[in-house]
Structures are given as C-alpha cells and as structure tokens.
Specification:
heterodimer, A: alpha+beta, 2 domains, 4-stranded antiparallel β-sheet, 18 helices, globular, B: A middle domain of Talin 1, 14 helices, 1% strand
Chain lengths: 454, 366
C-alpha cells in the first residue's frame, strides 16, 4: 500500500506529456486530413446503402452529409488537443467524435483506430496541458513544471499492452511453424528493390515470422531500459518502416514510431519542444511554469483513479474473452477484434445468399453488389457477424418487396492461412431467424483443423 | 537530437549496406511478370482478337452477299459464319479491359436475351444509334441470332423478309458495328497498347496482371457460370428462364458456345497458346511459383482437376439448353454447381494465393 502511495507521489517533467500531446494530436489531424483527401469519407460512409454496425452500437452509423461535419469536428478537436487549447473539452470531443467515426461501420475496423480511441479516452484524465500549451500560456496558474509520473506511465503501459499482446497472439502454430500468413503476403513484393527476390524464400518467411514475434514480445522492455533504448528505437523505426513498405497499413507505423518516443528521457522531449518554440520564435517564457508540481488529490482524483484502474484492468482482460467461446478463434472470430490480433491471418471468403419465400417456397440468389460495396462484400464474406447482419438486411428488404417471411440462407466458403477454401456456414440454416448476441454462433461449421497457441 | 539524427543516418547506412549484399546471387529468382504479360499478350490475347477479327470479316462478307442476294443458301452460309464468329468471341470475352472496355465491346457484342421489340422497332423506323446503352440488347450476336434465325418460321420465310431495304440495312448496320469494334480493338493492341500493357508489370490494382486476372475471373463468374447456365437454369430467379439461354433462336448451339468459353478459360489459366500447340507463363505457373499448395496438393492441379470435371458435367447437357431445362433442369444445376466450385477456387483460393485484390478495394489494413 505504501509503495503505491509512494509511486503516486513520484513526479516527472511535464515536457514528456506535452510532447506526446503535440505529436499525437497533430498525427491525428494529419490522419484525418489524409482520410478525407483520399475521398474515403464519401466512399466508406456516404456512398454505401447499408452499414455494418457494432453489436450494441446499432445507433452509431453515418448521418448522411452531416458525417463530414463529424470529421470536421474531430479534426478541429485534434488541432485544439494538440496545441492544448481548452484541453479537457477538446480531449472529450476528440475521443467522442473519433470513436463515433470508428463505430459507424465495422467494415473499416482497424486495430489502430481502437488504439487511438483508448489513448484519447485516457488522455482526457491526464494533465497534458500543464506545460507548453495554450491553456498554460493563457492562465499561468495552470502551468506546472512537474506532473505525477503515473500520468506518463499509464500511456507506456497501454502501448506495452498493444505490443505484448500482439506478440502473444503470434505464438501460434500457423505463425511460428507454417510462417503463415507471411508466406502468402511476402512474395507479393517481389518487385521490391534489393530484398524483393528474397521474399519468395522459405527461410525468409520464417525469419520474418519469428523476428516479428520476438520483436513484439520484447520491444517494450528494451525501450524501458535506458541502456537498450536507442537500440530499441532503431528497431522500432526499422520494423515499422518495413511493415509500411511491405503492407498497406496506412498511418499505423507512424503512430507507433512516434508513440515509442514516450519512453525517452524528458530531456529529449524538452529539447524537441525548445526546437519547436524556436521555430515559432516564441520567447523562453513559454517554458516558465508558475507552479512546481501538479499535486492531484481529493475525491475527484479518487474517482478519476478508480475509472482509470478499472479501464486498465479491462484492457488487460478483454483480449482474453475468446477463451469463453468454443472452436478456433481465427475461424469463428468470436473475440477476435479489440484484442491486438494484428496482421495474423490471411482470410478471405466467397459468400452467396439465397432468399426463399416461406409460403411459395420459391428461391433465388442475391446479387451482393446490389446491396454492398466491393469493400463491404469482401469483409462480409468471411466474418460471421457481418453475414448475420447482412442476412437481416436482406430479410427486411425482401419482406418489403412482398416476399412472405423471407428465409435467408448462405452458401459461404472461407479460406484461411493457406488452407483450401471450405464450407463455412450450415447451408440449411435460415439466418433471418437468428439474432446477434455474445453467444457462440452454432451455425458455423467446424474448422476441421487445429491452430495451437494463444 | 544529434543522437537521433545520427541514428537515422545509421539506419540509412544499414539499409544501404544490406542492399549491396544480395543483389548478384538471387537476381534471377524473381518471378518475371513481364514474361507472363508478354505471353498473355503475344500468344493468347492478341491472336485471339485477330482470330475474332478475321471471323467477323468473313461474317461481314457473307452478310454483304446475303443482303445483295437474299437466298436461302446465302442465309445458311451467313449462319455458319455467324456461329464461327460467335465461337471466336468466346475466346476474347475474357479480356474486358483497355479498348474493349472503353467501347463497351462485350455489352454491345453479347447482351442477351435480345430485345426483339426494340429490334423490330429499329428495323421499322430505320433510325438508331447502336453505340447507345439502350441499344446494347438490339445488336451483336444475340441480335443477329434473331435477325437470321428468329424472324420467320423457316429459312424461306426469313430470307424473304430481306427483300425490304430496312431489313437489309439493319443487318448490315449490326455487322458493321461488330466489324468496326473488332478492328478498333485489334488496332489498339497492335498500335501501342501492347507495350503499355506489358510494361505495367507491377502488383497494384491497376497493374496488368491484376486487371487481366480480375477480368478473367469476373468473366468466368458472370458470363460463363451465371450468363450461360445460372440465369436460364433459374439459379437467380424464382423459376427457370429458358428464354435467357445464349443463342435462343438458333437453339442447338448453346452447349457448343458454353464448351468453347470453358475451353478458353481453361487454356488461359494454363497459359496455353491460342490456336497453337505449346504454352508459356500463365496463372498456373504463377501459382506454382509462389508454391501455392492447399491440403497437400498444388492449387493449380486442384483447379485443373475441377476444370476437367466441369467439362465432363457440361458434356452431359443437351445441345439445346431450352430442351435441357424443360426436360431435366437438374443437369443444368449440376453444371452450375461444378463451375461454381471452380469459381471458388479461382476467385477465392487463387486470388488469395497470388495476392490479387478483387476489383477496386483500397483502404488501410492492419
């Protein structure tokens, strides 16, 4: 108990959190601009007729042209967040708007969006505006030289969870002993200068797989220890740039590279901030703080600590929820999302639907492209919750068209990590009769193979 | 900060060093997409289009002979060249990109069932612009099928109709459109498109390998599986639709057209030269190169075995699909199912193994 108290009374330089606030905020702004510039708002959220919502969040979906407004609000809040202007408020708005965007359609689900939501949520509770911020500059009483160390460590912990859990997830027989899915992905880069030809070599696939697993499991520890930190950072940069070049993974590598700078000494962050200040020709005064330490206490602080503790415990446990489900996780995907299973499988599907009139028993095939975009169809084809949701979309649509109590059946084939495609769903089941829940989906056919490990 | 700069410098040097090490020894291990594309262009696609062009030229000459002298004999000669050109078309229908896509070649050439009300109207009014979308179902092979097989109860009746200028003009216009399209595509391939096609040898969605493979799979799915068998057999509707068969008015050639298209698909998959012995790089050799083994078997073998099964199953069908549907539609459904299985191997397992994205799907992954 005493150790905890002592720990809560340890202080660090506020420059670290200020640096992270700036870097994270501007990176988010940049990602949002990139997203909009590619025309993806229209393509993913405005154009599709139907959206795949998250269970329990069915009310979160694109709101027509107002969706642009949500992106605009998100972008502005990211900017205010970055410069530390009305920080608390901006952080709340950024968290809410970003999470709203993330939840609008699970077709675009990405682990790093979830990571951003998590960081944004926690940042609401952290005094990231105590130093080198517009808030601190406007009201010197709110500026502090030092802040409690835990406010920085909690971010390191969350980053550590991402890496370590991603590493654990790689400890499975497909990844380690079959070099899957890298064996499928790497040869795609044969035209890559210099190392291209190597990427079709068996040993290279294994080397990449094992190195990746070891990297994920150890990188946080290497970053934590001062002696290995520089080396670890080199690894972070090389690793993420390599993944950036080899795979289409957007801004994620940059988010991870910049986040790992958190582990550096505060002197590094201080110097970086000074360079920024110099660039904008602001005087030394921006670095003078009215107060020495930010002391957090009182009931409000206790509530805050309670929320954050519960949140971290949730983060530690939630990725293991797959243990509650029978069957192979990669096959059923029950408990797959939100658990740092990153680039773990090459899975694709081919799924066609038959609608039957319950009275006349007449049936016909559905043309998926009449309902879904190519991207949605691709994602739908191998994920059970998408298939179920789509079955209901079809049921509702054809009911309105005058089909009596439409029965919806799926013929679905799925190929996973270099196995030949197999029938995925019981063809005889009327999916319109089943409803989404946290229960195991009994109409999934067995995987008929074994992937051992986490 | 100096440290960080030094660090980036170090990484740069590291990457640069590791580069010079490997160049010599493994340079020839690279799968040569240029060879693949060259084989596709020079030995398969261009010869197939040139063959189609020559068959359309014959068709055009016979059509001219018939309109000049509309005898039953000339009608029958025209009919033979129509079928020959129709078969040649099955070999080019797989390659819907470049000029072919620009001029809506496939839609203009083979949209069926033909819109016979529209055709009658065109003949009667004598005014039409065959390039327009609403006209797609009033021309091409299905349009000709109606014009030379469906206008009357027998050949004498049909030939007699071509005494009128309107009939002659319409037949000539349809054939002229087909000829100008064939000429345009061949001219484009021989006039520079070949070079840009081959040099676009990357892996992006707009690369030639991706475009060609997508077009091939899409054609197998929509034209062959659905169009020739699935739609008429009623797989996509509440009841069978025999009026949807290919060559509905000629009736007894639906099977040979199906068999020709499956042969074209199979030969393309294997990189077999068009109308000549021998073969080069193709999807099969590409799959073998990336060691695509599924359940202990080469994926290329799995696909070829299924192609053989498709041929056997299709061979059980009646020459006349209308008869087949009305007497024993189950055989049609079997043909559909067997092709469906190969479609899954092609569209799912093969595309996955070769890492080719289906159509244009971008966005980030993780």
């Amino acid at each position: 108990m005493n150790r905890i108290k002592n720990y809560l009374n340890t202080y660090s330089e506020a420059s670290t959190l200020a640096f992270f606030r700036l870097a994270f905020g501007f990176m988010m702004l940049f990602s949002l601009i990139r997203f909009a510039a590619y025309g993806w708002i229209e393509k993913f959220y405005i154009f599709p007729q139907y959206h795949f919502t998250y269970y329990g969040f069915d009310w979160v979906k694109p709101i027509g042209n107002y969706t642009y407004l949500v992106f605009l609000i998100c972008g502005i809040s990211a900017l205010f967040f970055a410069i530390g202007y009305k920080y608390k408020f901006s952080a709340v708005i950024f968290f809410l708007s970003f999470t709203f965007i993330e939840l609008m359609d699970k077709t675009t689900y990405l682990n790093h969006y979830y990571f951003i939501s998590i960081i944004a949520f926690v940042m609401i509770f952290l005094p990231a505006n105590a130093y080198f911020s517009v808030d601190a500059n406007q009201n010197r009483q709110k500026s502090f030289q030092k802040i409690p160390s835990w406010t920085i460590d909690i971010l390191k912990l969350l980053l550590g969870i991402v890496y370590f859990y991603a590493g654990l997830a790689k400890l499975n027989s497909d990844w380690l002993f079959k070099a899957m899915p890298l064996k499928i992905w790497l040869p795609n880069n044969l035209n890559f200068p210099v190392i291209g030809p190597l990427l079709n070599e068996n040993w290279v696939h294994f080397a990449f797989s094992w190195t990746g697993a070891v990297y994920d499991l150890t990188i946080v520890f290497l970053l934590l220890y001062k002696r290995t930190r520089i080396f670890a950072f080199i690894l972070v940069v090389v690793f993420h740039l390599l993944t950036k070049i080899l795979f289409p993974i957007g801004v994620f590598p940059y988010v991870m590279i910049v986040s790992s700078l958190l582990f550096f000494d505060s002197s590094f962050h201080q110097k970086s901030l000074e360079i920024i200040a110099k660039f904008f020709k602001s005087g030394k005064s921006v670095f003078s703080s009215a107060n020495d330490k930010l002391i957090m206490k009182g009931n409000f602080f206790k509530i805050k600590m309670g929320i954050l503790t519960a949140f971290v415990c949730f983060q530690l446990l939630f990725p293991f929820r797959y243990l509650c489900y029978p069957g192979e996780l990669f096959w059923t995907e029950e408990g797959f999302r939100f658990s740092w299973r990153v680039m773990l499988m090459e899975k694709a599907g081919y799924t066609q639907f038959t609608v039957t009139d319950a009275k006349t028993k007449k049936s016909f095939h559905v043309n998926n492209s009449h309902f879904l975009t190519a991207f949605q169809e691709k994602q739908m084809a191998f994920q059970p919750d998408f298939i179920l949701q789509y079955a209901h979309i079809l049921h509702d649509f054809y009911q309105k068209q005058g089909i009596n109590d439409p029965e919806v059946r799926a013929e679905s084939y799925v190929a996973l990590n270099g196995r030949l495609s197999k029938l995925y769903i019981d063809k005889t089941i009327d999916l319109a009769k089943d409803h989404e829940s946290f229960q195991h989906k009994t109409w999934l056919l067995p995987f008929q193979d074994d992937i051992k490990g986490f | 900060m100096k440290k960080i700069i030094a660090l980036f410098g170090f990484i740069a040097v590291l990457i640069a060093c590791s580069s010079s090490d490997n160049e010599g020894e493994v340079a020839n291990n690279n799968y040569d997409r240029t060879t693949l594309l060259t084989n596709w262009a020079d030995n398969i696609i261009i010869p197939a289009y040139e063959n189609y062009q020559s068959k359309v030229n014959t068709l055009s000459a016979e059509a001219a002979a018939f309109t000049a002298l509309p005898t039953v004999l000339n009608l029958q000669t025209l009919r033979v060249s129509w079928l020959e050109a129709y078969k040649a078309y099955q070999y080019v229908a797989l390659y819907n990109f470049g000029k072919a896509q620009d001029i809506s070649f496939k839609e203009i050439t083979n949209t069926y069932p033909a819109n016979i009300v529209g055709i009658d109207e065109n003949i009667a009014t004598g005014t039409y612009n065959l390039t327009l979308f609403p006209q797609y179902a009033r021309q091409g092979f299905p349009g000709l099928d109606y014009l030379i097989n469906g206008l009357g109860a027998n050949d004498t009746e049909i030939a007699a109709l071509y005494a009128t200028a309107n009939h002659k003009n319409y037949l000539s216009a349809v054939v002229a459109k087909m000829k100008s399209n064939a000429d345009a595509i061949v001219a484009d391939w021989n006039g520079g498109y070949r070079e840009s096609y081959i040099s676009n040898n990357g892996t992006s969605v707009s690369s030639s390998v991706s475009k060609t493979t997508n077009s091939f799979v899409k054609s197998f799915e929509r034209d062959i599986r659905s169009g020739k068998v699935g739609f008429p057999a009623g797989m996509f509707s509440e009841a069978p639709r025999p009026t949807d068969v290919e060559a509905y008015y000629k009736k007894d050639v639906s099977k040979v057209l199906l068999a020709t298209s499956v042969a074209a698909a199979k030969e393309f998959f294997n990189g077999k030269y068009f109308n000549a012995s021998g073969s080069g790089e193709g999807l099969k050799s590409y799959l073998d190169y990336v060691n695509a083994v599924r359940d202990g078997q080469k994926l290329s073998d799995i696909i070829n075995t299924q192609f053989a099964l498709v041929e056997t199953t299709n061979n059980l069908l009646n020459d006349n699909f209308i008869t087949q549907i009305n007497t024993d539609n189950q055989k049609m459904i079997n043909a559909y199912t067997t092709m469906q299985q190969n479609l899954i191997y092609l569209k799912l397992d093969m595309m996955q193994a070769l890492n080719i994205t289906i159509d244009y799907v971008d966005g980030d992954g993780d």
